[in-house]
Write a structure and sequence with these properties.
There is one protein chain. By secondary structure, this protein is of the alpha/beta class. The protein has helices at 39-51, 66-69, 99-116; strands at 2-15, 18-23, 26-32, 55-56, 62-64, 72-77, 119-122, 129-144. It has a single domain (2-143), classed as D-tyrosyl-trna(Tyr) Deacylase, Chain: A. It is globular, with a radius of gyration of 15 Å. The two termini are 15 Å apart.
């Protein structure tokens, strides 16, 4: 499971010209689900993201977590995070989970976020989405479950 985490002032996602999700201050999470990912992995990563101290305190130091600042979250499914570009010029996505499995874990991640974050919004799995954001910092982190297996 891979996340690209962006701290944002605001973010939104639209499908066919209609806004389907939007947040204010918080995190934009692009989520890629890979072969073999599980709910247990999702539990661990969402817990990590929620507790991650990536928001500024009164002195401008990144000492505050999502819980501390009442962060909102927008979750976007993005299988292209599993692009394999080692050979040729066309990325391969064979490391990404099959659509049914990926959607199930995407929905599970959304449910975990709804339990923790002040507000949770999401895109539509498999849709052609347009994502708009105002990055805060900029502040972007890549989190890969494989880093925790070592």
């Amino acid at each position: 499971m891979k996340f690209v985490i962006q701290r944002v002032k605001e973010a939104s996602v639209s499908v066919d010209g209609k806004t389907v999700g939007e947040i204010g201050h918080g995190l934009l999470l692009f989520l890629g689900v890979g072969q073999g990912d599980t709910k247990e992995i999702a539990d661990k990563l969402i817990d990590k993201i929620y507790k991650m101290r990536i928001f500024d305190d009164s002195e401008g130091k990144t000492n505050l977590s999502s819980e501390d600042v009442g962060a909102e979250v927008l979750v976007i499914s993005q299988f292209t995070l599993y692009a394999n570009c080692r050979k040729g010029n066309r990325p391969s996505f064979i490391e990404a989970a099959p659509p049914k499995e990926a959607n199930d874990l995407y929905e599970y991640v959304i449910s975990l976020c709804r339990e923790r974050f002040k507000k949770t919004a999401c895109g539509i799995f498999g849709a052609d989405m347009k994502v708009a954001l105002l990055n805060d910092g900029p502040f972007t982190i890549v989190l890969d479950s494989k880093e925790f297996e070592k």
